[in-house]
Amino acid sequence: MPRGKMPRQPARSGRQDRVARTPPPAKAAPKQPRGTVGGPGHKDAPVRTTTPGPPSSAKVPPASKAKKQSAYNPVAPDRIAEILKRLDQLYPDVTCALTHTSAWELLVATILSAQSTDVNVNRVTPELFRKYPTVEAFAAITPEQLEPDVRSTGFFRNKSKSVVGAAKKIVADFGGQVPLKMEHLLTLPGVARKTANVVLGTWFKKAEGVVVDTHVHRISRRLELTTNDDPQKIEQDLMRIIPREKWILFAHQIIWHGRRLCIARKPKCIDCPLENICHAADKTWSTVEMHKNAKA
To answer: Are 152 and 107 contained in the same domain?
Structure first.
């Protein structure tokens, strides 16, 4: 063997360099027997088609969840109508529980009822109106003179200032007569929308709004008629879903319902005719699903 020439050794990988690699031949499709229907190339062979699906980034909500969300609407007209129907059956002719014989007496009683009970106010007002029979009589005294007479209603100093201040303004600006308009009533000391709605609705039969006291506040949230906590916003929500001709009676019915059955800390759900359409989270007994956000 000539010097300097060594035979080439095979590569360790088993492949020779500088040798062109050819891909393995593709496997031929198996031949169909002659005359087979649907074989490749046959005129009746099925044609495969693909239907484009939704983009991978698109989120398709489960059908069951979408159906559940659209199935229940707490302020749907048919549900509101059913609530009003049952309230009419429970409390057909209820009215304000405060004892009064005039618009002025109702105004005074409503001011005194803040943070107190109607029963307690009704114990105080007969002697109060005997002692001061007219609005002019209240306008002639000082708040300090009135305080002993209203002490048992609570917050008696502020209430005395409000009653005497309202009397003085009614005598000075409205000729001694309780005004008939909401904007005028709201100028009186101690009078906000709740008190004004009580006087306008109960005495003058004018539906200018919905009374939102502690009972209406609590039960409207339990029934999912509102999610607000501010009385003015609750009133606006109720005015949107309750027919105007029902504003006055609805408030009285809810107040009576709050006293008799839908009590704050321990509602009597087992005795309530509204139970199966109420999903309040704090129910004491329930035949329906309870909603965690439906609470006082």
So the answer is: yes
